[in-house]
Every structure is written in structure tokens, then in C-alpha cells.
Design brief:
- The protein is α+β, with helices and mostly antiparallel strands.
- The protein has two domains: about 1-15 and about 325-395; about 20-310, 3-Layer(aba) Sandwich (Rossmann fold).
- The chain has six helices and 20 strands.
- The protein has helices at about 45-60, 85-95, 150-165, 205-220, 265-280, 285-300; strands spanning about 1-5, 25-30, 70-75, 105-110, 110-115, 125-130, 140, 145, 150, 170-175, 195, 240, 250-255, 265, 305-310, 325-330, 335-340, 350-355, 365-375, 380.
- It has a six-stranded antiparallel barrel. Strands 3-2-4-10-12-15 form a six-stranded mixed β-sheet, sandwiched between helices. The chain has a three-stranded antiparallel β-sheet with strand order 5-6-9.
- About 45% of the residues are buried.
């Protein structure tokens, strides 16, 4: 059984944005890949971006004016498809508008894949991660690139352009980048599909890809999966959420489970929107922890989402909060153990709050426990002895 712990200090509250601040969003959903066989098309990205748009314009803790939310997807009347040119034009428009202190939310739902890097020295594994617009083409040997692909280096540069204007950016990718798996077979009514396109579909030679990977790992034994997008130093803050590690795939399926009117959605997008709707004052780090908890409890996917950036900031606010000290724990014979100790400021006799989820406030504590022993990196905690006892049955995970 796993538990989340939170030191009994107050959480930072979500501050209201300054009056002059504007909130913008660019939501990209790539469904119908016009140059590929229909078996490679997706069903959920258009639903993802409509779900995100509806949340931002009606429920978000900061106001998003409808005219400040740009959607690029197919199958929605009056909306331009998510072509490479349209994505670049939308970024150019945002960069022109952005002012210091503005907040920009970016969301990408669609296929991802990998290809030999244009600049091999810039990638530890020798591969570029690609997000695939709907007009994606084939691998072009003469230039060493996939036609109309949105490469991780370009995405990083586009984000840096927004941050250079002083805007704070939160970017979410519900796509995957593994080069080893293909779309899953349909699974009954849930119609499960993987948001990953095998490089061979784009004409990338598997042997050449394997050679690049082997060379990258062989040249540097420290080589490991990288963050899919590299960003530089800039004035605005930066947070990125990725649905999967660079060597994983991520699914879409009909959600919410068990509902007769469920629609295909990216599992990551739906879980993320569910989490931020439930916890509007949480930090990015708390949201990430709660997404991971939901994945574990509900067995939503076998992937491990990745989170990076200014995770101690309160989501959407652009305001930095105090770091939240919390840890997942194991329970053995009624004693909790957490992977933190004296180096984390813990001491014998201190009281910790037991939380149902990583994003709950201390006023929602299930109960309190007392530290009985502590060393440098680990702590043992007794279930009894604090002012509010835990319930007999603890929630799952």
C-alpha cells in the first residue's frame, strides 16, 4: 500500500493574476493524417483539444477569453487542420502578442515518432523526437529529414521565443516517441490505439535507425532516454508535461470508462484535465504526482508520464509557491517508511499528515502520524500517537 505524506505546513494559495496579464492557449489535435493509410489515423486528438478548450474557457482558475484560445484540429467546423504551416503561423501570432507576465498554455495531441537527428551531436541518443502534423510526409534521404515533421529542436525554439517575450509557458504533449512499437489493435468498445507511428511507415529504414541508436549508446555509456524537448534560458517560466518517456508509447481510449456517451480521448489528456479540475489550486508538481497516482490506481496505462520545469509553481498562476514536502510511503506491519530523512529536515517526534492524494490540502488530511526514528535518507513512522488517528481502512494507493 502506498501513501502520500505532507508536512503539516500551509500550502501556497493560488494568487489572482495581475489585471494586465493575458492568458493564451494553442491547442493542437492531429487526427486524420492525409498522406497515410487510414489505419494510422487517430480518433481522440480532436476530442482532447475540445475538452481542454472547454475547461480553459469555463472552469480554469484564471480566465481564458474564447478569442485567446486557438484550436488546430480536423473534423471541427470552422477550425483549421493541424498542418505544420498552421502550427508555425499560430506560434508566430502568439509570439507577436505575448507580453511580460502573460501565461501561455500549449497542448499537442497526436502521433509522435523518432528519426535520425539532423544534428547528431545535439542529441544524446542520436535521435530527434517528432510531433506529426496532419500533413506529415515521408523520409527524404536528400535532406535527411521527414517532410513536414515538427522536430523537438524547433518546438524548443518556438517555446523559447515565447519565454523571451517574458511569457510563462506550460506545454503538454499527449503523444509518444518510441521507435519500436506500432498502433495497438482495437480492443472492443474502448477502441484502444497507441499514439505512436512506427518510423518505417514514414520510410525511415529500421537498420539505419538501429545503427544510430547503437552508435549513440556506444559512444556514451551514460546515455539514457532524454526529455523530448530542449528549452534554453529565458525570462518566462517553463513547465512541460509529457505523456510518456521517450522510449514508451501512450494510448487513447474511450473515456470516461463505463459511461454510455464516452468518447475517444488521450488517456493522459483526460487524466490531466480531471486532475486539475479536482485540484484547481495545486502546484504543477502536485498535479504530476496525482496523475501518477491515478495511473497506478486505475491501471490506465503502462507508461510513466514525465514532468519538468518550475514544478513548485501553482498551476496557471505564474506565482511560485513554497516547496511542498511530500513522499510516497510503504507500509509494513503497521509502520510507514518514507524515502526522506534528516537531509530533508525531518526529526524524531515530528508530525506528518497522511493525504489521500498528492494534491490535497492539509485540511483534508486523513489523519496524522509521528516519526519514531530517522536517519539520513529514510524515516520510520508509527501509525498511532498523533492527535488525529487514521481510519481503519485507508484508500487504495
Amino acid at each position: 500500500m502506498l501513501r502520500n505524506f505532507l508536512l503539516s505546513s500551509a500550502l501556497a494559495l493560488c494568487a489572482l493574476p495581475a489585471a494586465a496579464r493575458e492568458n493564451y492557449a494553442l491547442l493542437v489535435g492531429a487526427n486524420e493524417y492525409r498522406n497515410l493509410d487510414e489505419r494510422w489515423w487517430l480518433n481522440g486528438p480532436a476530442n482532447d483539444v475540445q475538452l481542454v478548450r472547454d475547461y480553459l474557457t469555463t472552469e480554469a482558475p484564471v480566465p481564458f477569453a474564447a478569442e485567446n484560445v486557438t484550436m488546430l484540429t480536423d473534423g471541427v467546423e470552422g477550425v483549421e487542420p493541424a498542418t505544420l504551416a498552421a502550427i508555425r503561423a499560430a506560434f508566430a501570432d502568439l509570439t507577436e502578442k505575448a507580453q511580460p507576465g502573460d501565461f501561455i498554455y500549449l497542448h499537442f495531441s497526436g502521433h509522435g515518432t523518432q528519426a535520425p537527428a539532423l544534428d547528431p551531436d545535439s542529441e544524446l541518443d542520436g535521435l530527434d523526437e517528432l510531433f506529426l502534423p496532419v500533413d506529415i510526409g515521408k523520409w527524404n534521404d536528400s535532406v535527411g529529414a521527414v517532410e513536414n515533421a515538427l522536430v523537438d529542436d524547433e518546438i524548443g525554439a518556438l517555446i523559447d521565443g515565447l519565454r523571451a517575450k517574458g511569457a510563462d509557458v506550460w506545454v503538454v504533449f499527449d503523444s509518444c516517441h518510441s521507435g519500436t512499437a506500432t498502433r495497438a489493435a482495437d480492443a472492443g468498445d474502448d477502441d484502444v490505439r497507441m499514439r505512436q507511428l512506427d518510423p518505417s511507415v514514414l520510410g525511415i529504414d529500421d537498420a539505419a535507425l538501429d545503427k544510430v541508436v547503437s552508435r549513440g549508446v556506444g559512444d556514451d555509456p551514460r546515455a539514457a532516454p532524454e526529455v523530448p524537448v530542449d528549452v534554453g534560458e529565458a525570462d518566462g517560466s517553463y513547465v512541460a508535461f509529457f505523456a510518456a518517456q521517450t522510449n514508451e508509447v501512450t494510448p487513447e481510449k474511450k473515456l470516461p470508462k463505463g459511461k454510455p456517451d464516452r468518447k475517444p480521448h488521450g488517456v493522459f489528456t483526460y487524466t490531466l484535465m480531471e486532475t486539475i479540475a479536482e485540484h484547481p489550486g495545486a502546484t504543477y508538481g502536485q498535479i504530476g504526482e496525482e496523475v501518477l497516482r491515478k495511473y497506478a490506481v486505475s491501471n490506465l496505462a503502462k507508461t510513466t508520464p514525465l514532468f519538468e520545469g518550475d514544478l513548485d509553481d501553482v498551476a496557471f498562476s505564474g506565482i511560485g509557491g513554497e516547496p511542498v514536502d511530500q513522499w510516497q510511503a510503504t507500509v509494513t506491519d503497521g509502520v510507514f517508511t518514507i524515502p526522506a530523512g534528516e537531509l530533508h529536515g525531518l526529526s524524531e517526534g515530528a508530525t506528518l499528515a497522511v493525504m489521500a492524494t498528492a494534491a490535497d490540502g492539509t485540511d483534508q488530511a486523513l489523519g496524522y502520524v509521528t516519526i519514531t526514528s530517522v536517519d539520513t535518507f529514510s524515516t520510520a513512522i508509527a501509525k498511532e500517537g498523533a492527535e488525529k488517528a487514521l481510519p481503519e481502512e485507508l484508500p487504495k494507493a
